[in-house]
Here is the input.
Amino acid sequence: GAGVSQSPSNKVTEKGKDVELRCDPISGHTALYWYRQRLGQGLEFLIYFQGNSAPDKSGLPSDRFSAERTGESVSTLTIQRTQQEDSAVYLCASSLAGTGVQPQHFGDGTRLSIL
Amino acid sequence: GDSVTQMEGPVTLSEEAFLTINCTYTATGYPSLFWYVQYPGEGLQLLLKATKADDKGSNKGFEATYRKETTSFHLEKGSVQVSDSAVYFCALISPTNAGKSTFGDGTTLTVKP
Here is the structure.
């Protein structure tokens, strides 16, 4: 079946521009996560959605970052007034929610480069 | 808060060598533990998992045992191959933390022929 799909796969933009990253989770997965991975580093948690609510926004690095999710479907991560420090791979993951603890299924990421 | 500490890399081994990548954790309650692998140019994939103490996760010749007494989940493989070259991430999900995953910083493994 289809996995987690992210678009675009690569994005190059000038400093100061806004960017919007998209994630299509696996159908039926109610939990959705965004992470940031800087070059050579581990995953940095950004935000978690359960359905279309975000119980945990603690990882968003600044008010330039925001995310939305439509129902239990697509999510968009928006970065306003981009800075060079925002350059990274942005990863989306989804998982089944429930009483158990489910592994996350990752997309291939969006590689964001700020010039 | 929750945390995961992995053995620092990079790790370089010869083909058929024994692999151990150490992982220890701190968490509230009884987390589930995971190893993810990221092959060059690809996204993260689940490698194996264990959801309770003394469980052993295994896949593709890799194994890890959930050790509650030492709060560890070390990854092992008896004989590595060149194709195992990748970055390996240890992670946990704590049921008390709204399902959020906490990842280690990753360990880069290079296997030479």
Q: What stands out?
A: The mean pLDDT of chain B is 92. The two ends of chain B are 41 Å apart (CA to CA). Chain B is about 0% helix and 50% strand. Chain B touches chain A at residues 31-32, 34, 36, 42-46, 49, 51, 89, 93, 95, 98-106 (CB under 8 Å).
